[in-house]
TrEMBL record:
NCBIfam families: spore_CmpA. This is Cortex morphogenetic protein CmpA. InterPro entries: CmpA (IPR047764).
Length: 45
């Protein structure tokens, strides 16, 4: 996880901002899935 994203999530949890937590969680899953799917396709070539 990138450090900037980790810091944002920590701040959202401290502030108990559920909307921000959900948004950042979606960003993380999007980032993680893109990264994994990209590495999977590169290993097939």
């Amino acid at each position: 996880m990138p450090s900037w994203l980790s810091n944002q999530i920590m701040r959202a949890f401290i502030k108990r901002d559920r909307r921000q937590i959900r948004l950042l969680n979606d960003c993380w899953f999007f980032y993680y899935s893109r990264r994994n799917s990209h590495s999977d396709t590169s290993s097939l070539q």
